[in-house]
Write a structure and sequence with these properties.
Layout: H1 36-41, E1 48-51, H2 57-68, E2 72-77, H3 80-94, E3 99-103, H4 109-122, E4 128-131, H5 149-170, E5 175-180, H6 203-224, E6 230-236, H7 250-259, H8 263-266, H9 268-275, E7 286-288, E8 291-292, H10 302-320
Parallel strand pairs: 1-2, 1-4, 2-3, 4-5, 5-6, 6-7
Antiparallel strand pairs: 7-8
Length: about 325
């Protein structure tokens, strides 16, 4: 597919009310704990939804909600036992047996390639792809491909998976691609001179940069897929206590449990983007709390997005051929 040279018009009026990122909401409101509004108003029967990283946290809550709506939910897991356990729980909580788990390590290019081939053979369509899986590494580590683990898992993994499934997704139109980012993108820039933190690594900066990459990827892909019937959007779930904090200190875990959203709350914007008719024709946008918001200035720079796309292609080229 040829890279589109034309940048999208980032100043188009939106039907959604924009709010500043810092706007507060009632914490742990019980309204976020119920999915009745989705179950009543939106039916996902005959829709095939693929979610990465749904054995816990936001991904799992999203899987439960979409399964409740009648969707066929497929999710990835690195660990077979954890995946089967999550599958049983999702089926039990949703009352929907059309739930499947497939092996995939999002930090491994070979694993992603193998998964994509198996998925396309098993499922004729992919109506919704949710790139949710992610890591936050305090210490610099390497993937099986020798790439810094955060950049490999959080950006290159979704980039490769999406491109490998793109023909499948476009053939399923109307379809949606949803990339889970973070508000932490706003304090970062793309360090093209040291994308993998070889010179100096900082876990927070590496994570923030990967989330900025998610938004740049979203906006560039949305431009390439305009008029295809496939929408591409990204979001911040807000500060949510999930498995990202599994390696945090005991104090950090204690503190996060008290101030952060629960996974079911953090999942609401993902579920909204996956199922709501309100966003059927919205693409290339960044949302938080189910509203379009302004992401950082750099995340809207299409020259930076193009450069990142080309660099990402070089990383995974042999798996795209």
């Amino acid at each position: 597919m040829k890279v589109a040279e034309k940048s999208p018009n980032m100043n188009q009026p939106s039907p959604f009310k924009r709010e500043p990122e810092g706007r507060k909401r009632p914490h742990h409101s019980p309204l976020f704990m119920h999915l009745n509004e989705y179950v009543i108003n939106m039916k996902m029967t005959n829709k095939i939804c693929l979610i990465t990283g749904a054995t816990s946290g936001i991904g799992k809550e999203t899987a439960i909600a979409l399964a409740k709506m009648g969707a066929t939910v497929v999710f990835t897991s690195r660990d077979r036992k954890r995946g089967e356990t999550a599958k049983a729980e999702i089926i039990k909580l949703s009352g929907n047996k059309n739930v499947d788990v497939m092996a995939c390590d999002l930090s491994s290019f070979a694993s992603i390639k193998d998964f994509s081939e198996k998925f396309k053979k098993k499922y004729k369509h992919c109506h919704i792809l949710i790139n949710n899986a992610g890591v936050w590494e305090k210490k610099r580590g390497l993937s099986k491909d020798g790439v810094e683990l955060t950049f490999a898992t959080n950006h290159l993994g979704p980039f490769l998976l999406t491109n490998l499934l793109l023909d499948h997704i476009t053939a399923s139109a109307p379809a949606r691609i949803i990339n889970v980012s973070s508000g932490l993108h706003a304090s970062r820039t793309m360090n093209f001179e040291d994308l993998e933190g070889k010179k100096r690594y900082n876990g927070m900066k590496a994570y923030g940069q990967s989330k900025l990459a998610n938004i740049l990827f979203t906006k560039y892909l949305a431009d390439r897929l305009k008029d295809s019937g496939v929408t591409v959007n990204t979001l911040s779930p807000g500060l949510t206590y999930t498995g990202l904090f599994r390696n945090a200190s005991a104090f950090t875990k204690w503190f996060m449990r008290r101030i952060a959203k629960k996974p079911v709350e953090g999942a609401q914007t993902v579920i909204f983007l996956a199922s709501s008719s309100e966003v059927a024709n919205i693409t290339g946008k960044y949302l938080s709390n189910k509203k379009i918001k302004d992401s950082s200035e750099e995340s809207n720079d299409m020259e930076i997005a193009k450069r990142l796309w080309e660099i990402s292609e070089n990383y995974v080229r042999k798996y795209l051929d």
